[in-house]
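yo

u said u wanted the structure for the complex thing, so here. seqs first:
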Amino acid sequence: QKEVEQDPGPLSVPEGAIVSLNCTYSNSAFQYFMWYRQYSRKGPELLMYTYSSGNKEDGRFTAQVDKSSKYISLFIRDSQPSDSATYLCAMTNAGNNRKLIWGLGTSLGVNP
Amino acid sequence: NAGVTQTPKFQVLKTGQSMTLQCAQDMNHNSMYWYRQDPGMGLRLIYYSASEGTTDKGEVPNGYNVSRLNKREFSLRLESAAPSQTSVYFCASSGQEGGYGYTFGSGTRLTVV
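structre next:
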């Protein structure tokens, strides 16, 4: 079993929909949780960064961490065609030589 | 501010040829990483350098070597390319001011025939 599990999709939604992307993990030591967005033929870019449990909001994006369930989510409100990309979750704990553990990524398509 | 710069962007090699992928960052980051990304396999760490002067193996180091030339530059070398090394290669860096987040380069698409 992988340390981080992420459904690869693909996920297809109509424009304006609320999107929920999720990852589960097995290592209870993870404290830092990230979501990256990767457009086709580009490098991943950091989208959201959360420490420990709780919610973080940035515009249309909300990241949620539930450490008790070992479950993280990314919500996208009012989704746009420009949100079509692959979304990767990543996480780590302090003192891990800054190495991230990655999910496989979920491919999202937002249809106009 | 360029961030992380990778060269070349595309490369085709014949089996057995060698090449070096170059990576440079201008953010004064201590840590640098080389990943490969393949369909269905996600990002896999090849080598990393936690700080200048140190390098360590990642998940899939076989067939690769690295050099941390200075704080800015981290190169990846394929000594004898094999078709299994056909992939997209990403360099990334991270530093204290960015927490544990990485900044990635735009990637090198390598095909070995």
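The mean pLDDT of chain B is 94. Chain B has no helices and eleven strands.
cya
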